[in-house]
Design goal:
This protein is α+β, with helices and mostly antiparallel strands. The chain contains 3 helices and 3 strands. It has helices at about 1-15, 40-55, 80-90, and strands at about 15-25, 30-35, 100. A hairpin with a 4-residue loop joins strand 1 and strand 2. Helix 1 crosses helix 2. The longest helix is centred in the middle third of the chain and has 18 residues, at about 40-55. It is globular.
Length: about 110
């Protein structure tokens, strides 16, 4: 829940549109529409999530939480976007808590 809340907080603060998000035990999948590079978004998500995890005592101050980078891609076509959102929301295995978020074509709030 902490990581999901942190990602939603970043998106609200930066005025980015969170289209889909699926938190797994070892990684995170997200789809975001923004006037920023994927690398900037990834760095902001990691920073906010790390602060929240530490604030909620879910990660020790000296724990290295994230890998050095991550996968970042641009999506330029609607069919690519739909495919990636479907992958993030529906093809990650059994849903964990919290459940995946999807705003693609909906008004769903996190």
């Amino acid at each position: 829940m902490a990581v999901q809340a942190a990602v939603a907080e970043v998106c609200a603060f930066r005025n980015w549109t969170l289209l889909a998000l699926h938190i797994r035990t070892t990684h995170v999948h997200g789809v975001v529409a923004a006037a920023a590079t994927p690398e900037k978004m990834l760095n902001d998500f990691k920073a906010y999530a790390t602060r929240r995890l530490r604030r909620e005592k879910l990660a020790a101050a000296n724990l290295h939480v994230w890998s050095k980078h991550g996968s970042t891609i641009y999506l330029w076509k609607a069919d690519q976007l739909a495919e990636v959102v479907d992958y993030v929301v529906n093809r990650q295995g059994a849903a964990l808590e919290p459940a995946p978020l999807c705003r693609f074509g909906t008004n769903m709030e996190p």
